[in-house]
Structures are given as C-alpha cells and as structure tokens.
Amino acid sequence: MAIFRVLGAFHAIGANGPVDLGGPRQRSVLARLLVAGGQVVPVERMIDDLWHEQPPPSALASVQAYVSNLRRALEPERTARTPARVLVTVPPGYALRSEDVDAWRFDELVRRGARAAAEGDPRAALRLLDEALALWRGPAYAEFATAEWASTEIGRLEELRATAAEQRAEAALALGAPGPVVADLRGLLAGHPLREEAWRLLALALYRQGRQGDALVALREARGVLAEELGVDPGPALQRLEADILAQSPTLDLRPLPAAAPLAAPADDQADIHEAARDRAVRGADGPGAAAPGSGPLAWEDTGQGSPQERSPAARESGRIAAEPAARERLFGREEELARLLAFPRGIALVTGEAGMGKSALVEAAAVRRAEQGWRVAVGRCPETGGAPPGWAWAEILRTLTAAVPPRDALAPRIQRLLDDAAGHDQPSEADLTAERFRLRRALAAYLAEAARPAPLLLVLDDLHRADDETLAVLVHLAADLAGAPVVVAGTAREEESGRLAETAAALARHEPLRISLGGVGREAAAALLAEVSGAEVSPATAAAVADRTGGNPFFLRETARLIAAEGEETAASVVPAGVRDVLRRRFGRLPVPARTVLREAAVIGRDVDVDVLASVNGGGDEAVVEAVEAALMAGLLVEPEDGGLRFAHALVRDTLYDDMSRLRQARVHARVAAALERLRPDEVAALAHHYASGGEPARAAHYAALAAERAELRFAYREAAALWGRAIELGGREDLELIMRRVRALALGNELAAAREMRERAIALAVPQGDPELTARVVGAFDAPALWSTRDYGVVSLEVVRVIEEALAALPPGDGAARCALLTSLAFELEGEETERGAGAAAEALDMAGRLGDPEAVAKALNARILHTFRDGGLAERRRYGTELLDLAREHRLAIAEVVAHLILMQQATGGLDWARADLHAGEGGRLAERYDMTMPGSLVTFYRAYRRAVAGEYAEAERLYREGARAHARVGAWRFEVGLSYMSRYCLALLRGDVAGLVAEAEVVARYWDVAAEPYALALAAAGRTEEARRAAGRPARIRPDYYARFFLVVRGLLGVAIGDKERAEEAYDALAPYPEDPVTQGTGLLPLWPVAQVLGDLAVFLGRPGEAAGRYRVALQVAGRVDAPVWAEAARRGLAAVGEPE
Known about the structure:
This protein is mainly α and 1145 residues long.
C-alpha cells in the first residue's frame, strides 16, 4: 500500500520506492482526493476544481486518464481487470483509500493527544503530540497553496498544527519541563502573534522557571500586540493569569510528578524500560487462584489490579475487617509498592496514579495483610457525584469503628456529629463555632488514638481527588494529632490533583508522609494478568502489543483481557481500542438491551447504587432488574458490597455509561431518581438536591439544598455549606435575603472573605428598602469578625455601606442597644484607615456601649475595631493596651478567633516597638492556635513575620521563600487584594534591602494599575534600572498617602524616589513627615516590612538635601537602633551611611 506525504513536499512512496505522480494536473487529482480525507469527490466537482469552473470539452476524458495513470503508478502489481484498492471508483466519483497519509495520521494523533490530556495523562499527550508535530516537513500541500480547493484544508491543518503546539506545551508544563517550552512558544508566536493561548502558556512557562518578571513582560508584550493589531485588550484567560502571577497563586504551581517512566522515552529505550519493570513484576501477591470480579471486603473497586485472596479464618473471626470478603483477583506487578506500604508503621500514606492504575487494589492488599496481622481496618470513600454530606468518608470510617469500639461517653456526642446525616444537634454560639470545630476534631483524634490501643488502625480514604474541604481538613488535623499513635491513614488519589488536594499535600509534607506513585505494570506482569483474566493462552506477541497499547494500565489490561475471553484473541486483540472507554463500550454492547438500560439508570444514581431506588427508577419489576444486574455482575461491571447494595466496579465504568447518555435522558432519569429518593430515603437531602437540580426541578432542588447547607454547618463544614447556600439561592430563582445572609456567614466562617463581603453587599441592597434598622444591623454585621487589618480592598471605602449604616443609626431609638452597638462597630471597620475621626469615634462609642451591655462578643468586635484606628499616629501604646484587653477577654470567654487575632495584634505591636522577644512569643502562640483552629489568614501572617525576621538577619533567600509561602496561603482568602498588597510590598522592601529593586519593574508596573499610590514604587524601580526619564513620567504628582499601616512605607519610597530622580520637593516632603519618628522602624505599621529604622532613611534624605552634619546624626541613631535589636543588615547600612559622609561610628 502506498504512503502519501502532504505535510511538506508532496510525494508518494510505493513498495518499490518513490512513485512518479506525473505532471501538475495529474498530481492535482491525487491531491484533491487526499484533501477530501477519504470521502468521495464527484467527477463534476473534480473537473470544476481543476479547471476553475471553465473546463475544456475533453475534461472528463482527461480526468479518467489521470486516474488510470495514477492507478498504474500506485499499484504496479495489480493485474488487469482486478479492482483498484487505493484510488477507487465510488459513484458519482472517486475516493482514495489509504492507511498511511501523514495529514490523516496527524489528525488522529492530535485527537488522541487531546483526549489523553483531557483524561489526565500528560505523558501520553506529550508523546502523541510530539509524534504528530514530527510529521511536518514543511507547509501543508505547499505545491497547491494557490488552489482554492486546497485553501480550506491548508488553513485547517495549519491551525491544527498551532493548536497541537500549544497542547504539546501544556502537556510539557504539566510534566515539569518548562525550559524547552519557552523556545518552542517563541517560535510559534513569531508566526502567530495573535494566539492568546500561546502567550498564556509562554508566561506560565516563564513563571514556572522562576522568571516572574519575564512572565509579566511577556504578558505586557501580548497586550501591546493585541492592542496594536486588533485594538482589543487581552481576554479573560490572560488577565486572570496576570493576576495569578502577581498573587503567586497556588493554582500556578506544578503538581508533584509521579516517579514513573521518563517523560517521553524514545522508542528504542522502551525495551529497556519494560525490561527493568519486568524485573520488578510480581506474578501475584497471594499465590494462585482467582474469584468473581469485584467481590471482596469493604466493596473495593475493581481497579484492574484486583486484590489478594480472602483473609485467614482468624482474621475473619477477629472482626478487624468490617465486611466478609470473598476470594479476590490477584495483584500483578506491585511487589515493591506493597512492601513499602506494609513497612510503614504509622502516619499518612498517599498512593497516587492515573485512573485504573490499581491504587485502591494496592491499598486493599495492604489492608488484608494488616488484618491478618491483627490490625483493625476501616474504609471511607469520597463520592464522585454530588449528594453526599461533607466529611462523608470519615463518617463511613467511624461507622465501621464505632460498631466494634464504641467511644467513651465524653467523646460520643461530638463523634455523633460526624456520624449523623440528620439535624438535631445543638448549634454552638456564634463566637464558639471555630473552637467547637477544633474540639470536634480533637475528639475524633482522641477516639482514634483510644481505638488503636488494643490493635493498630489502618484507615483508608479512597478517591481523595474527589474529597470535599471538610474531609481534607480533618486529614490534615489528624496528621498532627495522631503523630506517634499506631494509626496509618492511607489515601488514594489520581495524579491530576485538584487545587485543594495539592494544598493538602503541601500541608501534610511536614509530617513526612509515605508517597507511592503508580505507573503502568511491566510486560511480564501484563502478560500474566491477561492470561489470568482471559483464561486463555495469550501469545507473547499479543501480550506485548496489548501491554504497549494500554501503557500497562491494569484496568485497561483487565478489560481487554475480558474482550479476549469473549471474542477470542485474534478478534479482540487485532483491533485493540485506543482507550479504555472504547473497550468498555464494546463490552456494554455484548449485554442484553434491558441490562444496558438498567446500567444507565444506575449510572445516574451514582457510583454506589441503592437497589431499592434502582428498582423504583426502572419500573420494570424486580425480576427484570435482578436479571439485568446479574448480567452486569457476570460481566464484572458491577460488584456487590457487603451492605447489599451495588457498586460500579470502577469509576470509569459509571462515567462512560453516564457520559454517553444524552442530556435529555440524563435529566429524565435524574428526575425519576429524585422522586424515588424522596419516597424511600427522605433524609438524604444532599442527594435530593443534586438529583432534583439535574432533573430540571429547581424549586424542589433549592429546598433540599438549603436543608443540606444547614446540616453541613452542623458538621462545621462551612465551605461546603456556603456552596450549598449559593446553590439554593441560584435554584430558587429570586433574591432571598435569609438565604443570602446564611451564605455570608458560611463564607466568612470558611475563610472566603472576599466572597463574603461581596455577598453581604447583595444582602444590604435587599434589606435597606424594608426600612428596618434592626434588620440592617443584622445584615451589615453579618461579616464583621476579628481581624488584624481591614478585610476590604485596600484603600477602597464603600460609601454606600457607610451611608446605609449612618441612616440605620439615625432610625434606631436613642440609648444603648445591641443593634446600635453592632452598627457602630461595623462603621468603625468600614472607615478604618481614613482621615475622618468618625471611624475612631464610632469604635470608642461601640466599645463603651458593649461594656455596658455586658456582651463579651460585642466587646471583642469593638476592641478589634478600636485597634484598627490606632495606626494613624503610630499608636503603639494604645495598640498594646487594647490588644492585651482583647487577649484577656478572649481567654476568659473562650473566643477562639479573637484570641488568635489578639496574639497577632500584639506580635505586630511588639515588632513595631522593636521588642522582638515578645513578638516571637505572640507569633508562636498565634501560629499554634491558627493551625489548631484551621485559620488560614492568621497562619499566613505568622509566616510573614518569620520572613521579616530572616530578612533583617540578612537571610534573604529564606526570607523570600517565606514571603511567597505566606502570600500563597493568604491569596486563597481573597482579602483586600492581599496578593498585590502586603506580599508585593514585603518583597519590594526585601529588594530595597538587597539593592536589586530594578528587578521588580514589570511587577511594579502592574501593581501601579491598582492603586494611585503605587505609582511611586514603580517609578523608583524604573530609576533603579537606569530609566530615569521614564521614572519621572511614571511618578507624576504625589498621590495621597492614607494614614494607615502602610503610610511609612509609602513615605520612604517617596523620599527615595525624590533622591533617585532629583526631586528635592518630593524628598523634603517625605523628610518632614518622617522626622518625628527617627527611632522607629519603617515597619512599625505592619510589623512585617523588612526596611531599616526611619533614621536610616532620614540620613539618606539629609545627604541629598545638602545636610551632611544632620545626616551623620541620623545614621548614628540608626546604628544604635540596629545594635539594640541585633540587626546586622541595618547596622551595615548605617555604617555605609556614616562612611559616605566621612564620619566615624
């Protein structure tokens, strides 16, 4: 069969070498058929295309002659009167039949690469896309570039080539290889400068190389190109990336790579790779023998690996595994990984791999062995579809354990909160919510430690990539609280970690978890698996081909083996499907039609299937459902867990069935599932919300979503609750004030502050027209919570909120009252950092009133508000007094959040007062409590403090690392553009200390777009880079500096900028403003910016202003301050200043 090449020079290769394709028009006939992609080209259309719709009378004869000549050239061995096999006649024209056309091959490889990427396999995607792009040797159909009939296909192929290059870059980035990507993308953009996706990937690649400034420059270049060429701004993806880069958002970080094969091993190296894998392969962890697929303890999924044999009688009698196992399929090729898992005595073990790699089977094998050794085992699964309550996996584990080891009376009430999916528990007071959540987790840790005393525990969390926030938060908490206890928590997860799972993995890193990454099994293990499952002798050639095509994926191998058993080796293996879903579809097709219908209905219910609900949904009678289920069980598509329900053998089985249904059919079955649940399982409110929403009944879905949100709050799962309240609002189709207020509260308690503030504004807009000041007070105060600084965007005051508060205060009756006190506190929070005295006065009035009302929570909020107004004139003494009062109050009344914030306030105050020993004490205690109570913002501020201490000690690299770590943690909270606030300014100060602020030009330019006052730091960076004229233009007129915690930073920058650009007026203004505070550190406002004492800056300004004598005095003060706190960086700067003015120390 001939080989055709069109991606470059047009030619064909036959069995005897290059084929003579004739003259231009004859070559055009062949090219026209290739452009059709195997479809028929009518003769009339061929003639029109070749002669541009002006054919000669002999055109038809000419085409027939060209075809005859091409047939002889392409099939020289064909005998007369035998049908052509390549260029065939198909009325009303001709078509080309070939299995080797580079353009067609390119199409298929790109499709497969995109599918591999979508299925979370960047290695396969990279390999396929590399193969696709390597087919190009020049422009497509270059010989026919001016032909109208070729232009569309040429354009399509060129577009697909550019898209493939972008997808290839995406895959390489996912595999941690940004270096080559940068050059490739530069080349692509040289020819396609308007491709925004290529610009996005280039910036991301630069960022992952640690070149944040270059990444921002690339985005700026993209902005310029789009503006110049099209007159448009960058699209949302580029804008989002720019904000994420400034924030050092965790979403940009590369997930950990699996320790599998090389990223793209050359074909010649594959034998070596398989040989090494073969040496490690295991023929079966528990000896020969196999059983019904999918059976076994705890309803483990059939991941393709199967699991070990049934437990010993002694283990069964011990009750240490919750469910009675049946015989299990063998485990293939995992000897080394199983040994590592069994050697792990305590702590967290994470088993990761792509779908079907046998993660669950490996952990189950360890569970069976551990049970035989006397361990107690319990399993919880994270459901893949909506409808499960938060923390469901832990509830499953606890149900198993508490049935065997009941908790003691002191722990039982709190443990019961995790076990119940029904209302009825008392809600703790508002102020005690955070502490109560901590107490629940401590109670869980205490119970597990006690349960582990008679026998060690193995707790399995399956499918952690689907875990909700509460499940992951409990895991992190237990990692610390169970340290040293004989408890192993083994989690399984797919490699494509979600952002939440990646954050959890980072939080667990300090506890040194065991990490096992599963790749494909070797050829020998694959061959053994194929023979075992198919029950047939599989030839070595077939086994090798199947192993290579499946990448050693055990589930893929197992499903292919079942095809071999059903269809025979020659039939099944001759066309090994391209993906596991195709294998599954072929297996579905072998089932009776009623069985396929029942399986689709079961897929809508979810991975775990309630048999009663399924029978109700099907409506065909129990016997019909039983027959269908039996057929699916025989095929290994369903398994029967211990509880009598049904479970899909693997998530991919359920997902393939569900995804292949039309949306209309999905919706109709969801509606039937919801009706059945409402009748049979009315307490499963989360599931009812999910199915009614998917079934097109929003009103009922909204009702159940609200009930589910309430139950999530009872479990202290506030992020899940906030999402459910949001779903209830959306499905309800109207602005429900009560639901919105409930969501504000859940968002705030879940540390999602920016979203909480935005939602509160919606609530205010609904409450004000009702004219009820008490209601307004409730709505406005719904978001107030103790905080170190403002929780709004920096420098932005909502005049509308201030107006609403003032009008509500005027409408209330005079005298003390909870509503008035709350409104005054809210007003103080809103006006923090402003020049008006109204905010400070409101805080003082609220504090007095709260004291008279005897409400400790109100006193705590008012104290916090009062503290926010102590930054205007330094206010260190006031801040310490009020901070101490807040700490004492919080401890007395067990106000957890207030206690943490009080420690941070006192940490900041002590730093501003250069009392680092006291600051260290408060930082340590505040950080410990923040971790205990799962408080992201306070914990990140402690990290910033640690960075500050490293910076002033001259440990710049460690300081920068800690600043970035703190910024990533805090960016998740979304408070007042924190990512372009304290994070940026901290690193800016660090750059000033190091003398390399010029490196921040690109970032400073972007930040200057957000705040007018940030223009001067940008200008100073330009000046440091030698771009003085640009610096003068960028500086503009000095902006207003707010009298808040950043005031001294901006004053210092203003003064230094004046020196840099020769602006004496600007420098004089800064000098006069800073002069009253020579012995204070510049950082006094925040306690976290690592700049020198104010005296150092005053000395530099005095030199510039022509006052050398005064400068020497300032430098000596700076040297004294540095000596008091042992800050070598400050001391060195002061000595350099003295030397510059010719003065001794």
